[in-house]
Amino acid sequence: MAHGLLALNDVQEAPMATGSNAWIDDELSGCRLADERLGRRLRTLIEQLAGAMGDSIPLACQDWANTKAAYRFFANDRVSEGDILAGHFDSTRRRVAAATGPILVIQDTTEFSFQREHPEKIGQTVRVNSGQDKDGRFRMHTVCGLLMHASLAVTTEGLPLGLGAAKFWTRTKFKGTAALKRKINPTRVPIEKKESIRWLENLRRTTELFGDPGRCIHVGDRESDIYELFCLAQELGTHFLVRTCVDRLALGGDTTVDRVMEEVAVQGVHAVEVRDREGHVGTAEVELSYRSLRVLPPVGKQKRYPGLTLTVLHAQEREEPANRPRIDWKLVTDLPVLSPDAAIEKLRWYAVRWKIEVFHKILKSGCKAEEARLRSADRLVKLIAIYCLVSWRVFWLTMINRSAPDIGAGVVFTNREQEILDFLVPNKAPNLPGSNTLEIYLVKVAKLGGYLARRCDPPPGNMVMWRGMARLIDITLGSEIAPQLVGN
């Protein structure tokens, strides 16, 4: 069994009830809402929104009574996004405990933008240039919206185990980094007074939640290149792998990291698959260089933070390609890299960071979170928290098909659902013993969503999976109602 995959017994022992909607009970088992009726309404809402992914709340709820109850739930001051996600966080913890090998905890921030007549009820994310007026002066436009910073736990094979932390916020005013630099050196501002503190808060929360800090590697893009984060990871006994963008002081303070790395010889070559601007797939060779060295904090913070011994890893193409950007990755980690194979392993782990971008895409393109019509930030946040559960489930179904295709279909589907799928998408050959694997039935679901399953086709993606699951839910409901209408 490869590291990062859930073993068959682990999957079955992990809290994952069978059936297309039974998973909701697992994700809510750790929720403690103020009222039992709120708990029942939350479950109903998740079931409705999961069965009508991408549709509006009225369409998902079907009638005025359920729609009004949904609006009341989102307006209820006794419910918070933390209450909604608490059960999911606990289920993620159990799935992490059941998995084997290292766990990658990927952090990233995404923005949700909205069009509103009263944007002040939601807040703003950023000010952007919206073009020139008739006199040639640039106009600035304030984007209405809110932000979410999430930590997604995945195996090294890319199987999403769930969220470990999520922070939502919005701004009443926004000043960019350029404006800040005109008044003060940002490196001298304490991290506690910056929005960047969210990276440290999520690292601390997920480390405490999973309870096995040495096993977790916290992965982030260049925005997470924060010295305070490195120090906190060392303090908590956990690990990090970050794409660096800051050329820090190194060794004794009389040189920098980039200058030191310029002297490091190429220690290996690695072939990676790339796409050019026209979408053509090709292969590129990147040269690997890595070194362990002492890295120093910013000058203004050297009294507060110690120097750290870190590993810097560079992966770079020798020449600039004509039809795409040059590959140039600079990573920093507290993990040792002593061989080309270890360097390639860290590159592959960082490449898994893209999984959180896919999760955000499901939230926005699948659930259509930015098309929600709720009028205030607190209500939108509760809706997006529910969408996080639905999006994770779709993502998990897509990736479990690739990570552990040979486990039994009963982990996800009831016997009734398997019978319906066999009827709608019959097997080309007679059933053989052991042929009821999860892969077979997930492909059948994908076919309901428009997947052609030709030999040259890649594995089914998130879009066909969520369309197929929505159809399966409707068909299963119809099969349960039909006998009552026409008799057995």
Verbal overview:
This protein is an alpha+beta fold and 488 residues long. Among the domains are: 245-346, Transposase Inhibitor Protein From Tn5, Chain A, domain 1 (Alpha-Beta Complex); 405-482, no CATH class. Helices cover 40% and strands 20% of the residues. The protein has 16 helices and 12 strands. The chain has helices at residues 8-13, 23-28, 36-51, 57-61, 64-75, 81-98, 177-181, 197-210, 227-236, 257-262, 340-351, 354-366, 377-403, 415-424, 438-448, 462-486; strands at residues 103-113, 124-132, 138-155, 160-169, 216-220, 239-243, 249-250, 255-256, 268-275, 281-295, 308-316, 328-333. Strands 1, 2, 3, 4, 5, 6, 9, 10, 11 and 12 form a 10-stranded mixed sheet that branches. A hairpin with a 5-residue loop joins strand 2 (124-132) and strand 3. Helix 3 (36-51) crosses helix 13 (377-403), helix 6 runs parallel beside helix 13 and helix 14 crosses helix 15. The two termini are 46 Å apart. Mean pLDDT is 86; it is low at 1-18.
Number of strands: 12
CATH homologous superfamily assignment of the domain at 245-346? Transposase Inhibitor Protein From Tn5, Chain A, domain 1
Residues in β-strands, percent: 15-25%
Oligomer: single chain
- CATH fold assignment of the domain at 245-346: Transposase Inhibitor Protein From Tn5, Chain A, domain 1
Largest sheet properties? 10 strands, mixed
Helix content: 40-55%
User: What structural class is derived from the secondary structure elements?
Assistant: alpha+beta
Supply Rg.
Answer: 25 Å
Shape: globular
Instruction: Please count the helical segments.
Output: 16
Which CATH first-tier class of the domain at 245-346 would you pick? Alpha Beta
From the N-terminal CA to the C-terminal CA, the straight-line distance is: 46 Å
The name of the CATH architecture of the domain at 245-346 is Alpha-Beta Complex
Q: What order do the helices and strands follow?
A: HHHHHHEEEEHHEHEEEHEEEEHHHHHH
Mean pLDDT over the full residue set: 86
Low-confidence stretches: 1-18
Domain Transposase Tn5-like N-terminal: 21-79
Protein name: Transposase
Organism: Skermanella stibiiresistens SB22
